[in-house]
Amino acid sequence: MGGVSHPRSRRVSAGIVGGSGYSALELLRLLARHPRLELKWIFSRSHTGEPVASVYPSLRGVVSASFAPVEEPAALAGQADVVFFATPAGVAAEQAPLFLESGAAVVDLSADFRFRDEETYRRVYGKSHPHPEWLASSVYGIPELFRDELAHARLVGNPGCYPTAALLALAPLAREALLDPDAPIVVSATSGISGAGSQPGPAYHFPGATENVRPYGVPGHRHAPEMAAVLGRLVPPGKSAPVLTFIPHLVPASRGILATCVARPAREMPDEELLERYRRFYASHPWVRVLEPPELPQTKAVQGSNFCDLAIRWDPVAGVVVAMAAIDNLVKGAAGQAVQNVNVLMGWDEREGLEVVPLYP
Ligand SMILES: NC(=O)C1=CN([C@@H]2O[C@H](COP(=O)(O)OP(=O)(O)OC[C@H]3O[C@@H](n4cnc5c(N)ncnc54)[C@H](OP(=O)(O)O)[C@@H]3O)[C@@H](O)[C@H]2O)C=CC1
Ligand SMILES: CC(=O)N[C@@H](CCC(=O)OP(=O)(O)O)C(=O)O
Q: What are its E.C. numbers (predicted)?
């Protein structure tokens, strides 16, 4: 289960399972301009053999491929160096090992390989993992936090969209044990509707979603234990991370996540110190932009791009820090981060294929 070995100069072939979903569409958009990663096959259960551009009008004249003319993705094992699973939870857990055993690297955009132990997986997802033997070697795919481990990974558990934003916002404090372990962290976040995928339930349809803002999954959203597990790994050995509560909200936008995290630091931390720490922490990470005051993150400033915009403030009245992050849920929250992870796995520049200027306004 060691790392992938590919000459840095060679073009690497990619396969995609879950072909007609939103994350697959984003992967195709990014792969279309990636100089080293090229689409070899794309599998769709519902559009077998159809031209990709007939499903995604935005890809007309850009992607000439058709969905693979096979009934099962297993028929494609051994034909790509990297396989992306852009499928609902449970699919990669069953099918990824076949591709791993055929020698491919796997980046799973679902939640199947985000936890490293089966007990946590079972507690959060309410069922046993069909291939727990792969969990310990999977690497949580936030390159800004786990770059060294990812460089040697074969299997990447690409993070949830909300955890990407919240963990990037909190990581500099967690890594340096600057969070008070006895004060709960509050993560309040908004998501655009594409966060629920391309076939969401009736509550996500236009009449109910437009001109409406609503919380959901409170308490007990599955991203709370995901954030908690990773936060626990970020704090130095022997230290504990604070518990956290998570309040997601659905907002009437197509894309974008804004996460606002409120935490009590271990001691008073003036704005200048916080800002300096955040600047230093992310200095070598091209996809995180630490904003200078008075700027604050906004989803539109990152739309369509792999950027995570961060701001950090000290609130002297409440004695808390407020860490804010904006991402595009489909890019840094899903497909963009998946491509960034492959760039790290292959030893390429993390920016390869991702240099899209955000679409503003
Ligand atoms: N949307 C987002 O912002 C984010 C999504 N994710 C995760 O990424 C994964 C993909 O998300 P997204 O693209 O939004 O989801 P979509 O629902 O848009 O797409 C998922 C695709 O998977 C295929 N599929 C559906 N059911 C099954 C099944 N039972 N077995 C095999 N394939 C199936 C379908 O494609 P086809 O019929 O073509 O095979 C479907 O279009 C999910 O696990 C999601 O939780 C993670 C972070 C952010
Ligand atoms: C708006 C919306 O519904 N968002 C999704 C999160 C998308 C995601 O990251 O889901 P996975 O962890 O399953 O990959 C949700 O809250 O369930």
A: 1.2.1.38
Same structural domain, 315 and 173: yes
**Residue recorded with tokens 């697959």:** 24
Looking at the predicted structure, is the pLDDT value of residue 2 above 70? no
- Report the first-to-last Cα separation within the chain, whole angstroms: 45
Pocket flag, ligand 2, residue 247 (CB < 6 Å): no
Tell me the best of 161, 204, 205 to mutate to test the pocket of ligand 2, counting ligand atoms within 8 Å of each CB and taking the most: 161
The total number of structural domains that make up the chain? 2
Neighbours of 95 (CB within 10 A): 24
State which residues form the domain around 311.
Answer: 162-329
Kindly state the average pLDDT of the residues 27-34.
97
pLDDT of residue 10: 73
**Is 190's C-beta closer than 6 angstroms to any atom of ligand 2?**
no
Active-site residue list: 161
Indicate whether 177 and 91 sit together in one domain.
no
Residues 142 and 285 in one domain: no
**Residue nearest atom 3 in ligand 1 by C-alpha distance:** 195
Q: How far apart are CA 53 and CA 61, in angstroms?
A: 8
Judgement on whether residues 341 and 195 belong to the same structural domain of the protein: no
